[in-house]
Specification:
This protein is an all-alpha fold and 89 residues long. The chain has five helices and no strands. Helix 1 packs across helix 5. The longest helix is centred in the N-terminal third of the chain and has 15 residues.
């Protein structure tokens, strides 16, 4: 399975509740940031998947973290972005 396919596998898995949010964020960030050859993505995929990776890297379930504006993302925001990516790519 290619790295791009792995990212889509994670996206589908999260949408089907096969992964918890922490596992999704850790794996998505690892694959996107460290393993993916970006030239396999078109410009729209690069933009949206990069945004999702940034959000996943800044996930927090801590209420105190989430009070800091524009720093952390909660599970709901990440799930919304994942659904948007799935629907638009």
């Amino acid at each position: 399975m290619t790295e791009k396919e792995q990212l889509w596998y994670l996206i589908d898995g999260l949408l089907q509740n096969e992964y918890d949010i922490v596992t999704f964020c850790d794996e998505f960030t690892r694959i996107y940031d460290l393993e993916l050859e970006y030239d396999v993505l078109n410009s729209k995929e690069k933009e949206e998947l990069s945004d999702l990776c940034d959000m996943a890297a800044r996930f927090s379930a801590d209420i105190e973290d989430l009070k800091i504006p524009n720093v952390y993302f909660d599970e709901h925001a990440i799930r919304e972005k994942v659904q948007y990516v799935k629907n638009n790519l």
